[in-house]
Amino acid sequence: MLDFTFSLYLGLRHPHCVLEPWESLTTGAPATLVEPPVSRVVAQAAAKLQGCERGLLSPSTLYLFWDLFSLLGRESVAIYLDAGTYPIVRWGAERAAGRGVAVREFPHHNAVALDWLLRHHARAGVVSLIVTDGFCPACGRAAPIREYLACARAFGGLLIIDDTQALGILGHSQGPAAPYGKGGGGVLRWSGVSGSEIVVVSSLTKGFGAPLAVISGSSALIGRFEAASETRVHCSPPSAASVHAAHRALTVNDQMGDTLRYRLAGLVSRFRHLLGQQGVSLSGGLFPMQTLPPLPGLDAATLHQQLLREGIKTVLHRRRGGNLPLVSFIITASHTENDIEKAAETLAYLWGRNASGPSLERMSRQKEVRQWF
User: Fold this and answer.
1) Range list of H helices, 172-239
2) Angle formed at CA 130 by CA 128 and CA 135, multiple of 5 degrees
3) Domains in the chain, please, with CATH?
4) pLDDT digits over 287-306, tens only?
5) Quick one: average pLDDT of 225-246?
6) Taking the model in full, what pTM does it have?
C-alpha cells in the first residue's frame, strides 16, 4: 500500500534506537517547575534557525496560541486575521474574542485589504495583532510577510505567524539548486525579514517529525510569555522522547536537510510533470501537498475509494469554507521515484476512465495492455 497521507515532509522518523537515552518519559511536574535539560538547547536552536532571538518549547501549538492571545489580550489589542488562517490559531483568537477583544478578518493574502482595515479601525493605544499562516498549502503560496510586517510596523502592532507548514521546508537563497531555499528556517528566512515585532509559533511535527511546538520571537516577549503562561503552570512539558526527537531532527537538518529538500522538490516536480502531460492540473505549487481539482461527474470520495482499491492511500478533505470534497497527495522525501510514477499512472488511469479525456484514455488503454503481460 502506497501511503500519501502522512505529513512527515522530510521523511524524518525517530525510532528510539537512534535517540539519546532518557531516564523518564515525563517529569510528572508542570513545565514551569522542571523540563528535560535539553529543552532549552532545542528551543534556542529552533529560534536561531528561524531568525529569532529566543524560543520556548511546548507540547502543541494549541497550548502556545492559548497562552499567547491570553497574554496579549491583557492589554488593549485588536486582532486582524487572515481568512486562510488555520483553525488552531482561530481557537486562540476566539478565546480572546470571548474576553472582549475585537477580531476582524481580511481576505486571504491581501495586504491591501489589511492596510485598509487598519487605516479605518486602528486606534491610538490599541495594539494591532496581525495573524497569518506562513504558508498556505491550499493555494501553494507563502503569505506576503514583508507587506504584513510593514503594516504591523506602520500601526505599532505585532505580526503573529503560524509557520508549521513552512518550517523545515522553506529557507533562504531560493534558486534552481535549492527550490525551497536553504536551511529550512521557514517563512521568515524565505521572505528575508526579521524583527522584534514578529512572533512565530510552529509545530515541528510536519517538517521535522517531532511532536512538539516552539514559540520564537524577541527575548523580551518570550520572557514575558514564559512568566505569564498558564499552560506551563497546569500542563506537563513535552516528553523527553519528543525533545530528543526534535534535537536529532535539527542535527539532521544541519547535516543533510538541503539534500532532503532538493530530493523532495524533485519528487513533487516529477509528480506534477507526469500528470500535467496527461492533462491533470494540480494545485499546491511545489509544496508537498498536491490537490486534485474537482472532476465533473466524479465525486472525490469515489475517486478516493478507487485509489484505495488500487493500493494508494490519499487524503480526502474539504478546504476551509468549502463544500466540495477534494483528494490530495502528500509527498515526502521518503517516497521513491517508483512510488511517484505508480501513483501518477494509477491516478491518470482512473481519471481518464472517469473523465474520458483523449490523452487520458490513451494512457488508460496502455495500462490495460500492460496488464496482459
Assistant:
1) 187-191, 205-208, 219-228, 231-234
2) 175
3) 14-254 (3.40.640.10), 257-370 (3.90.1150.10)
4) 999 999 887 777 899 999 99
5) 96
6) 0.93
